[in-house]
């Protein structure tokens, strides 16, 4: 029997995509607005409180993969097909845009050409531009997915509690690597909890897909906001002011809890929106959803263009332009991707697996 399509996930993907752009747009404010200025707390909320966006992307990947593959035949053919599709639609665009950003960085003077070995090293760890490291983390998680699926098939205890195991391993790894500094490249263990949590929701989807009542929704929302504020200001006092009010291990634990509750809250909210939102709103969400990978790859380039066009001469202009850049980057990035999609409808190496223009238009 064919499984139902989980339409509510598109909302989560669009939210995470918007937050990635927002974080990068507001980054200059964190470096230039004085910490004693009243606007600093505003930017802190926009730039630090929103840092669960990476966990959401990983949660989504885990949910989709475990949901689709936990009951498929565990055969060589299954996993060869899995690797071919996943790596083609992810590594193809990754390689294309990595080379693009290498050339772009040389052109803009961000760094000097140091030979092909330097480019190769950047490709291995996602170092060609600041957002690309995350894709290599996903690639690592995809590589180990068959092993993870084997564990949930083989061990009932693991099937039932593997999201707890994931968060525990992530916590232990984070503390260990903070002490030793042994691993300096982007490593999948920093998101293992989110990946397993998404996988657990996927495996047990029929049990968790129901809507909350109002009381449960409000309680969980307030819990998430509360934990998020503790994380945000814990980070602020520890790394901005250098006056920590909690240990590194406690801050790490709070961060993991905040990311987990944020993912689950968005999952539940997405289910409600899918059932309640007007059709035009759902159509807009779908339009943005299909280009989410493209947004992640392209938006830093578009942001540089707008940053060079909107050059502030006063503090007031600086804050105004920060706010203007977000909608301008979102709109410009969408139009840029849309144009390339129409010009090269089958160019999977640009943005991955996109729907055909004709089918997509009818669906919208």
Automatic annotation (TrEMBL):
<feature type="transmembrane region" description="Helical">
    <location>
        <begin position="288"/>
        <end position="306"/>
    </location>
</feature>
<feature type="transmembrane region" description="Helical">
    <location>
        <begin position="217"/>
        <end position="239"/>
    </location>
</feature>
<keyword id="KW-1003">Cell membrane</keyword>
<feature type="transmembrane region" description="Helical">
    <location>
        <begin position="318"/>
        <end position="337"/>
    </location>
</feature>
<feature type="transmembrane region" description="Helical">
    <location>
        <begin position="245"/>
        <end position="267"/>
    </location>
</feature>
<dbReference type="GO" id="GO:0016413">
    <property type="term" value="F:O-acetyltransferase activity"/>
</dbReference>
<keyword id="KW-0808">Transferase</keyword>
<feature type="transmembrane region" description="Helical">
    <location>
        <begin position="158"/>
        <end position="176"/>
    </location>
</feature>
<feature type="transmembrane region" description="Helical">
    <location>
        <begin position="89"/>
        <end position="110"/>
    </location>
</feature>
<protein>
    <submittedName>
        <fullName>Acyltransferase</fullName>
    </submittedName>
</protein>
<feature type="transmembrane region" description="Helical">
    <location>
        <begin position="182"/>
        <end position="205"/>
    </location>
</feature>
<dbReference type="InterPro" id="IPR002656">
    <property type="entry name" value="Acyl_transf_3_dom"/>
</dbReference>
<feature type="transmembrane region" description="Helical">
    <location>
        <begin position="130"/>
        <end position="151"/>
    </location>
</feature>
<feature type="transmembrane region" description="Helical">
    <location>
        <begin position="12"/>
        <end position="31"/>
    </location>
</feature>
<dbReference type="GO" id="GO:0009246">
    <property type="term" value="P:enterobacterial common antigen biosynthetic process"/>
</dbReference>
<keyword id="KW-0812">Transmembrane</keyword>
<keyword id="KW-0472">Membrane</keyword>
<keyword id="KW-0012">Acyltransferase</keyword>
<feature type="domain" description="Acyltransferase 3">
    <location>
        <begin position="7"/>
        <end position="334"/>
    </location>
</feature>
<comment type="similarity">
    <text>Belongs to the acyltransferase 3 family.</text>
</comment>
<dbReference type="Pfam" id="PF01757">
    <property type="entry name" value="Acyl_transf_3"/>
</dbReference>
<feature type="transmembrane region" description="Helical">
    <location>
        <begin position="51"/>
        <end position="69"/>
    </location>
</feature>
<dbReference type="GO" id="GO:0005886">
    <property type="term" value="C:plasma membrane"/>
</dbReference>
<keyword id="KW-1133">Transmembrane helix</keyword>
């Amino acid at each position: 029997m064919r499984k139902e399509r989980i339409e509510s996930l598109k909302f989560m993907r669009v939210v995470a995509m918007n937050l990635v752009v927002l974080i990068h747009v507001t980054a200059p404010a964190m470096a230039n607005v004085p910490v004693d200025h009243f606007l600093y707390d505003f930017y802190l909320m926009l730039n630090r409180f929103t840092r669960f966006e990476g966990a959401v992307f990983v949660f989504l990947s885990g949910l989709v993969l475990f949901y689709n593959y936990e009951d498929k035949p565990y055969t060589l053919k299954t996993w060869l097909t899995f690797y071919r599709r996943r790596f083609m639609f992810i590594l193809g665009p990754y390689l294309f845009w990595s080379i693009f950003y290498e050339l772009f960085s040389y052109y803009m003077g961000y760094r000097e050409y140091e030979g092909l070995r330097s480019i190769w090293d950047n490709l291995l760890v996602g170092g060609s531009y600041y957002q690309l490291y995350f894709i290599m983390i996903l690639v690592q998680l995809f590589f180990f997915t068959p092993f993870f699926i084997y564990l949930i098939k083989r061990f009932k205890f693991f099937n039932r509690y593997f999201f707890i195991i994931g968060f525990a391993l992530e916590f232990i790894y984070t503390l260990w690597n903070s002490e030793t500094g042994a691993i300096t490249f982007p490593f999948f263990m920093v998101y293992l909890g989110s990946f397993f949590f998404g996988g657990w929701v996927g495996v047990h989807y029929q049990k968790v897909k129901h809507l909350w009542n109002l009381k449960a929704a409000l309680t969980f929302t307030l819990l998430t906001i509360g934990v998020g504020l503790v994380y945000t200001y814990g980070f602020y006092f520890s790394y901005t002011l250098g006056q920590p009010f909690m240990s590194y291990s406690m801050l790490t634990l709070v961060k993991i809890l905040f990311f987990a509750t944020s993912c689950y809250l968005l999952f539940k909210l997405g289910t409600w929106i899918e059932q309640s939102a007007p059709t035009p709103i759902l159509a807009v969400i779908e339009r943005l959803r299909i280009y989410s990978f493209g947004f992640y790859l392209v938006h830093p380039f578009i942001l540089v263009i707008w940053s060079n066009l909107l050059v502030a001469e006063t503090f007031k202009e600086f804050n105004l332009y920060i706010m203007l850049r977000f909608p301008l980057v979102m709109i410009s990035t969408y139009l840029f991707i849309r144009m390339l999609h129409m010009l090269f409808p089958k160019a999977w190496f640009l943005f991955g697996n996109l729907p055909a223009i004709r089918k997509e238009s009818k669906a919208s």
